[in-house]
Design brief:
It is a single chain. The protein is an alpha/beta fold. The model has no long low-confidence stretch (mean pLDDT about 90). It has helices spanning about 15-25, 40-45, 65-75, 90-95, 110-140, 145-155, 160-170, 170-185, 190-200; strands spanning about 5-10, 30-35, 50-55, 80-85, 100-105. It has two domains: about 5-135, Response regulator (Rossmann fold, 3-Layer(aba) Sandwich); about 145-200, Winged helix-like DNA-binding domain superfamily/Winged helix DNA-binding domain (Arc Repressor Mutant, subunit A, Orthogonal Bundle). Strands 2-1-3-4-5 form a five-stranded parallel sheet, sandwiched between helices. β1, α1 and β2 form a beta-alpha-beta unit. The longest helix has about 30 residues, at about 110-140.
């Protein structure tokens, strides 16, 4: 039985590799989804499932690097671990620059593979937490009135209440009220938190 909420997607055209790694990971409590080809994986891949992908570099219909690019193009931030039958420095460099967690040579040791998966699990958790925070912030952002959002943009741009009042042609105390409502609705504790969340959501500073 598996006890981890983390799935390892195995993609390799060598059935013996799928079985061997699959057995190892199941014993360690991971959920495993094996695929004999990249096309089968892409047709069945669910990006919403927490997990990582272990990809063979050399496969007939689509190599591992191309599959990594296809995942990225689809908007998936799935952590990727590569396996290869022979060391290739240029390929390794390309894979790592594209965000791979690790590039391991077959036959891979259990220890090296499990350590790479643990790193992928941490990265996946961090990515999903950040995305959940962004979605939550955008949901709260939709609760702001047009004026509150305008004030927020000026705050994010680093303007003081007096400056914002001058730009908007309103009283400073009115800006303070709007600013307080923005903080309450968005659930932030400081301007720094507000700026950080706004940047993650692609919100630019206030426009004059």
């Amino acid at each position: 039985m598996t006890d981890r909420e983390f799935t390892v997607f195995l993609v390799d055209d060598d059935e013996s590799v799928l079985k061997a790694i699959g057995r190892l990971l199941l014993v360690r409590g991971y959920r495993v989804q094996p695929f004999a080809s990249p096309s089968e994986f892409l047709a069945n891949h669910d990006a919403s499932i927490a997990g990582c992908a272990i990809l063979d570099v050399a496969m007939p219909d689509l190599d591992g690097l191309a599959l990594q690019q296809a995942l990225g193009a689809s908007g998936s931030c799935r952590p990727v671990i590569f396996l290869t039958g022979r060391g290739d420095i240029p390929t390794t460099v390309r894979a790592m620059r594209a965000g791979a967690v690790d590039f391991l040579t077959k036959p891979v040791s259990d220890t090296d593979l499990l350590m790479a998966i643990e790193r992928a699990e941490r990265r996946d958790g961090e990515t999903r937490a950040a995305e959940a925070g962004r979605i939550s912030f955008n949901t709260r952002l939709a609760m702001l009135t047009p004026r509150e959002r305008e004030v927020m943009q000026h705050v994010v741009a680093g303007r003081l209440n007096k400056q914002i009042a001058g730009v908007l042609g309103t009283a400073e105390k009115t800006v303070k009220v709007h600013r307080g409502r923005v903080v309450a609705k968005l659930g932030v504790r400081s301007v720094a938190d507000l700026v950080r969340l706004a940047e993650r959501s692609g919100i630019a500073g206030g426009e004059t």
